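sorry to bug you again but im stuck and you know this stuff better than me. what follows is a protein written twice so to speak, once as letters and once as structure tokens for the fold. id like you to explain what the token line says about the fold, in plain words if possible. anything you notice is useful, everything is just below.
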Amino acid sequence: MWCQFLICFVLVVAELWPLQAAAQKYAAIFNFGDSLADAGNLCVDGIPSYLATARPPYGMTYFGYPTGRVSDGRLVVDFIGRRASSFRWMDVAGVDRHSECRDLFRRSLFIVGEFGGNDYAASLGAFLPLEQVHTFVPHIVNSIGKGVEKLIADGAVDLVVPGVLPIDLNTLSWVHNALLQRKIAELREKHPGVRIVYADYYTAVMQFVLHAEKWGFLRQTPRTCCGAPGVGKYNFNLTSMCGNPGAYACDDPSDHWSWDGVHLTEAAYGHIAKGWLYGPFSDSPILKDRHH
């Protein structure tokens, strides 16, 4: 079950520069998730040419070339980890002794997700009835909970569990996030010596939609920065998505919050990361009351 739960994951390890005080240091960051979180693990053995995300303009803002990140630049985990003096990749198989592994885990930050977004998007894309897709939510949330408990059993004491982004114009995301927060509350009660932070993508994106100018984005009908004309004014076309022929990127991704119609821009991820670290997009902020 554990292997099935973490079919798609990325492991990022960063030595963090002192944040606000010595107590805020982490030895490492372990980051699990889908394309919102993947900092290039999918392409660790080289970027497959068939991936649209392997082609420009992906990576144009910060790196200047595609890195496997599904954005114009950095992701939330990059902003959280940028307080490191340098990133390094670690093969956890090199940590041989169980006690060493547990000690590393106790000094590390685990970001678990988001998970669920791909499941819902694929189901809705297959035209399953919305009522049926809603029945998947408890199973997905329970799987996330089991994954969190597995990490706790292995020694993790600081975990961040993100909810999902808004999905379509329905209550699916809201229900998922409500059940996930309930699950986190149960886990907090069950494991009082562990800190579990709920991280909120949903509220952040809704803020970008409703109050774009407040966050430095253009006040306009939500449009993708990278895409092609399609139905409506969204610059989104399923037959010509970002990285494919016919698609193009806007001149300045920093004034858009949507990168390709599914994923966000570096600018948006930067705001979200700040909200996770210091609030208000987390319960509680990552840098508050860290486990000692």
In short: The two ends are 31 Å apart (CA to CA). Residues 1-23 have pLDDT under 50 and may be disordered. The chain is about 30% helix and 10% strand.
